[in-house]
Design brief:
Elements: H1 20-48, E1 65-70, E2 73-83, E3 86-96, E4 102-108, E5 114-115, H2 116-122, E6 127-130, E7 134-135, E8 140-141, E9 144-147, E10 150-154, E11 166-170, E12 177-180, E13 193-197, E14 200-203, E15 206-207, H3 214-217, E16 222-228, E17 232-238, H4 250-259, E18 262-267, E19 276-278, E20 304-305, E21 307-313
Antiparallel strand pairs: 1-2, 2-3, 3-17, 4-21, 5-20, 6-19, 6-21, 7-8, 9-10, 9-13, 11-12, 11-13, 14-15, 14-18, 16-17, 16-18
């Protein structure tokens, strides 16, 4: 999640100007209590759902609603309570990397924050998810980023190692891969495009060990990317901070990707940043997930971010 992950928006009121500060404080207080209650509920549920406990079904077994976006790209969505003893809303984009019609693009801004949906529209994308971690106050990325051979960000000093111990990298005419941070740092990587993030969830079919802290062990909205053995790229958003969808812990997210056959998987920025956008979904402005930024279970709570991963059709 971004450095400041809970925001209370400025509230409009039809009351007189004199009463606005009092009303805003009350609205902020109610919203804060709501978030606290949801967090407590989800934390208690997460304690009951041990990583090794038997779930009703695995991620591969539950019933997904599926829609083919175009040849080689499938959108899947799930809403239910069959996974990990939790009520969940999950969106998944499956990209067949064996198709030569698509390319992955790293969209970024070093001058301010932009909605993932706007990144997507500006680049005429087919689909998009939010990218990696950033500083909300300064509007700048805090992880290593390289785009088309140019280093955009060297990261921020003092970051937790787990927030960039993995990354997704690719060259222009090559398939993307998920890799661990090189011993000599990301600057030593030869990939033309790199988005560092973390924690690394799965590497070479092996699920990683995770810290015992709230970031890893509490349920939050999550965004992640994975590569499967049959050369599919999975872009996933898990909604959270709502009674309609609790979110996942980091171990649960790793388990989710493992159940879908991932050989390598990476956690991206989550929390209020989590969002998925698909072109032509005009009823929702393209946003198909339920971002938590407005404390409502709708498609309107999108947060501006510094990076996004886009799926584009290659120009002939």
């Amino acid at each position: 999640m971004s450095d400041v992950d809970l925001e209370i928006g400025e509230n409009q009121s039809r009351f007189k100007r004199l009463r606005k500060p009092v009303l805003n404080q009350r609205v902020a207080g109610v919203a804060a209590w709501f978030i606290l209650l949801v967090s407590i509920s989800q934390a208690l549920t997460a304690q009951d759902a041990k990583p090794d406990s038997a779930a009703v079904a695995t991620a591969a077994e539950v019933e997904w609603q599926t829609e083919q976006i175009t040849e080689g790209i499938i959108w899947k969505k799930y809403q239910g309570d069959e996974l990990y003893n939790a009520r969940l809303s999950i969106n998944l984009i499956e990209v067949d990397l064996r198709s030569s019609d698509f390319m992955l693009k790293l969209a970024y801004s070093d001058t301010g924050l932009i909605n993932t949906s706007d990144f997507a529209k500006l680049n005429e994308a087919i689909a998009a998810v939010n990218g990696s971690f950033f500083d909300m106050e300064r509007g700048l990325p805090v992880v290593y980023i390289k785009a088309e051979g140019e280093t955009i960000s060297r990261g921020a000093p003092g970051r937790n190692v787990y927030t960039e111990n993995g990354g997704i990298g690719w060259n222009t005419e090559e398939l993307p891969v998920i890799v661990s941070r090189p011993e000599n740092g990301w600057a030593s990587s030869a990939y033309q495009n790199i988005l560092a993030s973390g924690p690394m969830l799965i590497h070479d079919k092996q699920t990683k060990e995770f810290n015992n802290d709230p970031f890893h062990q509490n349920r939050h909205p999550r965004t992640g990317v994975a590569i499967t053995a049959d050369q599919k790229m999975l872009l996933v958003t898990v909604d959270g901070r709502s009674f309609q969808s609790y979110g996942l812990t980091i171990p649960e997210l790793a388990r989710f990707f493992s159940e879908l056959g991932a050989t390598d998987a990476l956690n991206l920025d989550g929390g209020g940043s989590t969002v998925m956008w698909i072109d032509d979904k005009v009823d929702n402005g393209g946003v198909v997930s339920y971002p938590s930024g407005n404390f409502e279970f709708d498609h309107e709570g999108e947060r501006a971010v510094s990076t996004a991963l886009l799926i584009l059709k290659k120009k002939q």
